Amino acid sequence: MRSAIGEAPAEGVTVEFAATGDYDEAVALIDEYEIDLILLDGEAQPAGGLGIARQMRDEFDEPPTLAVVLARAADRWLAAWSRADAVLSHPLNPVTTAKTVVDLLVERRSADVPSQRAA
Length: 119
Fold this sequence. Notes:
The chain has helices at residues 2-5, 23-32, 49-59, 76-82, 94-112, and strands spanning 37-41, 65-70, 86-89. By secondary structure, it is an alpha/beta fold. The protein has a single domain, classed as 3-Layer(aba) Sandwich (Rossmann fold), CATH 3.40.50.2300. The chain has a three-stranded parallel beta sheet, sandwiched between helices. Helix 3 (49-59) packs parallel to helix 4 (76-82). The longest helix is centred in the C-terminal third of the chain and has 19 residues, at 94-112. The protein is globular and about 35 Å long.
């Protein structure tokens, strides 16, 4: 995933990566740091990224943006069930993967900025 995205996937957008091995480690990162986007491997074992995405949606009032990576297009229905914000497919295409990540980050940042009204 790192090589498909890169540390600077677009002008003005930088990415800092942190890896976790399970749900509890991911929650610890969310609790300790400001996490804008979580990329989850839908094929990970023992707890797959799809289940983790669903659990984060259920347990956090405002979870980070969630994207899942699937090995099979037939699993898109599971991605919908997980309530992920985006779905990426193996093999990861660096152009579409980076664009998806940038779009998700820009969308999240713009949602975090309060709108300014003219007086």
